[in-house]
Amino acid sequence: MAWWACWAAWAAALAIRDLRRGRLDDALTLPGLGLALAGAAGCGALPGALAGAAAWAGPLLAAALAAPGRLGGGDVKLGAALGALLGGGAGSAVDAAAAAWLAGALSGLLTAAAGLAIGRRSLPHGPGMLAAAGIALAARALPGAAG
């Protein structure tokens, strides 16, 4: 239960910061990445965490480089942290990459749907990323869930 409280506090701080200021600071993203990697290493799941981090952050980095100003470095670092978090609990590096790709796609859909719902073309991407990761983590925690 304490893990979920920590997750919720971290996710809320990131989402509020991104919605208010349009940026995700290193002071919030990098500790999450470090803790996800350290936790995975402690459980013998570092390869999955690294695969998940690369699978989510890689496409974000490519998008940030291709269209400067649309996605920032904070989104890329958050993608790495969330991918590591999801990947660390996956059964293999391939499962980790797949989980991160699916959550990344879901985050894009959530952000687009929120934009349509409120009539805005542009929204911070962080809250959608956090919502998608939260959904994936909760689904994995269900009894009988794989991973």
Q: In a nutshell, what does this entry contain?
A:
With 147 residues, the protein is an all-alpha fold.
Structural write-up:
Keywords: Membrane, Transmembrane, Transmembrane helix. InterPro entries: Prepilin_IV_endopep_pep. Pfam families: Peptidase_A24. GO terms for molecular function: aspartic-type endopeptidase activity. The chain crosses the membrane at residues 100-119. The chain is globular, with a radius of gyration of 14 Å. The protein has 147 residues and is mainly alpha-helical. The protein has helices spanning 2-21, 26-42, 46-66, 73-88, 93-118, 126-141. The protein has one domain (25-141). Helix 5 packs across helix 6 (126-141). The mean pLDDT is 88. The chain is 79% helix and 0% strand. It is built from 6 helices and no strands.
The general outline is globular
- Indicate the radius of gyration in whole angstroms: 14 Å
Low-confidence parts: none
Averaging pLDDT over every residue, what do you get?
Answer: 88
State the domain count: 1
Straight-line distance between termini: 19 Å
Structural class by sheet pairing and helices: mainly alpha
Organism: Corynebacterium sphenisci DSM 44792
Domain Prepilin type IV endopeptidase peptidase: 8-94
Keywords: Membrane, Transmembrane, Transmembrane helix
Transmembrane segments: 100-119
